[in-house]
Structure formats: structure tokens, C-alpha cells
Amino acid sequence: MAKLYFNYSTMNAGKSTVLLQASHNYRENGMTPLLLTADLDHRDGAGRISSRIGIGAEAETFRAGDDLFARIAARHAALPLAAIFIDESQFLEPTQVWQLARVVDDLGLPVLCYGLRVDFRGELFPGSATLLALADEMREVRTICRCGRKATMVVRQDADGRPLREGDQIQIGGNETYVSLCRRHWREAIGDRAPDR
Fold first, then answer.
1. CA 88, CA 162: separation in Å to the nearest integer?
2. Annotated catalytic, 58?
3. Beta-carbon neighbour count of residue 133 at 10 Å?
4. Gap between the Cα atoms of 72 and 107, Å rounded
5. Which residues are CB-contacts of 93 (< 8 A; sequence separation ≥ 6)?
6. Which DSSP letter does residue 76 get?
7. How many Å apart are CA 35 and CA 60, to the nearest integer?
8. Which of these is catalytic: 60, 88, 123, 188?
9. Residue 156 and residue 81: Cα distance in Å, rounded?
10. Coil/strand/helix, residue 135
């Protein structure tokens, strides 16, 4: 039975690595997956899903306003698909998440979404909030804070490494911009908690 999956975490947890491995498994078994990623991050080239460990794959991109159900249905009619993989799913619009739910319900295709749960301010991304509401299964991809605890938050830093508390929700960046922390150390970084002595 097809399901809508939401695999979420903070930055640098290996979400793209897990996505690429799962997609590879489908291809290795003679099945055709469709890979999609947000048309926002061009650090490794447009339409490319890349992992920090050096693996990558070409993908189609999605933008705000795209009808993902119509697009996937047309692709599936032309060449039967086995699964849909969405990287950077936090950038989906709520309407697009509903379209992906239709892909599961009406086309019988599994949709596996990978993305961030919260932004640097500790607020849900709209796409992530809708995925949390609609997903049939949710899986946390874990990473650790510098203290060894599970990292659940991310802090955005300026060029000098100072944590930022304000700014646009979306700013593309990697290790130079974002650091994954446990909630306690995130609160310390943004000035909401005094550091332990």
C-alpha cells in the first residue's frame, strides 16, 4: 500500500544521503523513481540532489505554484513510476503537499519527502507543517549536537559566526551558515538561556 512519508531532521543529518540510497535501491531492482528537489539551491548545480559525503543524482525541480499531481500523473502515464522522492520538502507549498497526498491516494505511488522540520527561529516551515499533518508515516533522521545530545534545532550564523535571531525564513547555505544543536544549546546560542558553568 502506497504511503506519504515525511523524513525530517535538522541540517547535516544525512537526509539527502538516505534519499539517494533509497532511490538507488529502486533503480537497482529495475524500477523507476522520480526525484524532485526545490528550485532554490543551486550550490551543486540546478536540478541536483547532493550529499555532504559526495554522492549525488540529477533531479527535476519544483517551484511555487507547480501542480505536482498533474506533473507526476503525466510522467507516470508516459513511463510507469515506482516511487516519488522529494528533497528539500520544507519548501513545498501546503497545496503541493495535498497534491502529493493525491499521488498516493489516487495513483497508488509512494511519496517519500525529506526535509527540515523547523527553521533557524524554531518555527515550522509551511510545507513541513502540512507534511506533519498529512503524512502516513514520519521518520526522524537523527544527528547530534556538539554536546552529544540529539540535535533538533538549527542556528543561522552571520559571516563572523554570530547567531542570528531574525531574517527571512529561507536562506540557502551549508555548514558555513547553519549549525545543528540540541534545544538547550540552541537557546543558549540565541540568548534565551544562560550557558552552563
1. 25
2. no
3. 12
4. 9
5. 64, 65, 126, 127
6. H
7. 6
8. 88
9. 38
10. coil
Residue 89 marked in a binding site = yes
Count of residues making up the chain: 197
CATH classification number, 4-142, choose in 3.40.50.300, 3.40.30.20, 3.30.70.360, 3.40.50.150: 3.40.50.300
Q: What is the pLDDT of residue 131?
A: 97
Rounded to the nearest 10°, the torsion over CA 107, 108, 114, 115 is: 50
**Is there a binding annotation on residue 180?**
no
- Averaged over successive runs of 10 residues, the pLDDT of the chain (197 residues) comes to 93 82 93 92 70 76 96 97 95 97 98 91 92 96 90 81 64 63 86 68
Q: How far apart are CA 140 and CA 99, in angstroms?
A: 23
Output the pTM of the full model.
0.85
The reply, when asked if residue 15 is annotated as ligand binding, is yes
Cell numbers given for 70 = 498533474
Quick: pLDDT tens for 102-160: 999 999 999 999 998 988 888 899 999 999 999 999 999 888 898 999 988 888 777 77
